[in-house]
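Is this the right way to post structure tokens for a design question? Let me know if I should format differently. Anyway, here goes:
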């Protein structure tokens, strides 16, 4: 018996003098020192009467101690609940109360605001500074709590764009198996230095970037956030980078981002939102590197990846990872569809979560008895087994009885002159039930010719797919991971065709 997650990620580095974190101020933290810090936090959480199985909620700015608390939760058998730092007190109140968190750690400046939240939830509230001071006085060794692979390791709440946020329950096995697969798939070793500019309240920055680095015994350049100046300054010291599409478009917008700057890099990974094919092309032309795009979710960690060696197809998210089964099914019947057909994506494997916390009905709706999870994404598989994401099931537009996939229209619009990017949505229509609206972000200061755009669709798309209205916007609304919030656009333009 042991503790698979802690032993597999953290415990192997006991006493190691190799660097784990390179901080922006030039200081460094070794794997061994990080593990000592972890043990001290495990003692501190125990002093707050957290026992194995309890949830620990954390809403603090990205910092090494936030990672140490994640590790401490693993060592003490606690369930880690990271929260987006942008959440308001009302939003946080739902997560803390719903999860039944025993301990809630926040920034000192928010203690007064979040006090009532913790009191209503019955959670012990402490700020990070106080917890760190308590930890400093504790021993640098902690007896790791015995757990098995099915014990819960973390809760991550979904974005909740279509109702109440759901707490995805992730086991030790879910997290560990995915890290093992990705280390091998992306060829990470102890020699790698990952430039980490992602948030750590999300799967991408925490359970992909951090877990892979820990398992491989590598190091991270640990930036508080994506800062273009800092990323350009530090890229020559890195071998790999993980980011969202916005990172790469911002880099391409700077003339200093060149082939020479990235000469020592071996891997750029993109995820959390679709990467435009033109970004792939521009990136390769500028640097000689092809971005590796992959596909994952809060509930599943990573499902697919373009290959490390072999063709990385722009517009696809690659093939299923080892151990992951993926199929395309009919949304109405659940029957598997042949290659090339669009349907809902379902996945099964050791990476798939245990269900939604205290939502058995929702769990039954989305997690089949045979273990396949209905992702809510629409896609197809090509002849080579590469998966293309067409959109979210909820984004499907049904107009006059026709199924319309927004991504197909966006692909045509994004290629048009004067268009930086677009987002296509369905809004209520008195005759057709729904109709198509396109939000267009201009490229540069001059607005594109909307009549010319509409005319350009004539030869590319069937008439029923054409937007009935195009609207110019300064920027598309996005969440913290760069995903376009189409629900915001749908709300904004819901009354466009009302009487």
């Amino acid at each position: 018996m042991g503790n698979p997650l802690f032993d597999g990620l953290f415990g192997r580095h006991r006493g190691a003098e190799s660097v784990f974190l390179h901080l922006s101020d030039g200081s460094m933290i070794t794997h061994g020192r990080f593990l000592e810090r972890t043990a001290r936090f495990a003692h501190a959480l125990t002093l707050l009467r957290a026992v194995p199985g309890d949830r620990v909620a954390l809403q603090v700015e990205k910092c090494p101690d936030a990672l140490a608390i994640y590790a401490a939760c693993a060592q003490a058998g606690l369930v880690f609940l990271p929260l987006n730092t942008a959440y308001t007190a009302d939003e946080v109140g739902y997560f803390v109360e719903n999860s039944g968190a025993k301990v809630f750690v926040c920034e000192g400046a928010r203690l007064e605001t979040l006090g009532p939240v913790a009191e209503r939830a019955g959670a012990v509230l402490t700020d990070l500074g106080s917890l760190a001071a308590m930890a400093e006085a504790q021993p640098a060794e902690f007896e790791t709590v015995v757990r098995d692979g099915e014990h819960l390791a973390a809760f991550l709440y979904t974005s909740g764009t279509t109702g109440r946020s759901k707490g995805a329950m992730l086991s030790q096995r879910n997290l560990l198996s995915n890290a093992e697969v990705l280390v091998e798939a992306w060829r990470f070793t102890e020699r790698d230095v990952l430039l980490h500019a992602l948030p750590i309240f999300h799967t991408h920055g925490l359970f992909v970037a951090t877990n892979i680095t820990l398992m491989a015994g590598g190091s991270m350049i640990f930036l508080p956030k994506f800062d273009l100046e800092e990323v350009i300054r530090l890229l020559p010291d890195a071998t790999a980078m993980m980011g969202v599409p916005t990172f790469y478009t911002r880099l391409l917008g700077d003339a200093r981002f060149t082939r020479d700057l990235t000469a020592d890099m071996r891997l750029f990974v993109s995820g959390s939102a679709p990467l435009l094919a033109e970004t792939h092309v521009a990136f390769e032309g500028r640097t000689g590197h092809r971005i590796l795009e992959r596909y994952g979710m809060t509930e599943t960690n990573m499902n697919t990846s373009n290959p490390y060696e072999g063709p990385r197809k722009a517009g696809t998210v690659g093939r299923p990872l080892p151990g992951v089964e993926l199929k395309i099914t009919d949304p109405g019947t659940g029957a598997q569809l042949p290659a090339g057909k669009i349907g809902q994506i379902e996945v099964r494997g050791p990476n798939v979560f245990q269900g939604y916390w205290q939502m058995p009905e929702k769990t039954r709706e989305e997690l089949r008895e045979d273990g396949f999870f209905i992702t809510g994404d629409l896609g197809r598989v090509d002849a080579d087994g590469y998966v293309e994401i067409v959109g979210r099931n909820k984004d499907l537009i049904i107009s006059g009885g026709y199924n319309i996939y927004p991504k197909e229209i966006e692909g045509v619009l994004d290629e048009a002159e004067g268009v930086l990017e677009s987002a296509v949505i369905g809004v209520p229509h008195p005759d057709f039930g729904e109709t198509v609206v396109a939000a267009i972000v201009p490229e540069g200061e001059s607005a594109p010719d909307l009549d010319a755009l509409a005319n350009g669709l004539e030869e590319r798309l069937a008439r029923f797919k054409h937007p009935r209205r195009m609207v110019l916007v300064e920027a598309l609304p996005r969440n913290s991971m760069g995903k376009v919030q189409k629900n915001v656009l749908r709300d904004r333009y819901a009354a466009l065709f009302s009487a």
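Format looks fine. Someone answered above. Worth noting: The chain has 15 helices and 24 strands. Residues 276 and 411 are 8 Å apart (CA to CA).
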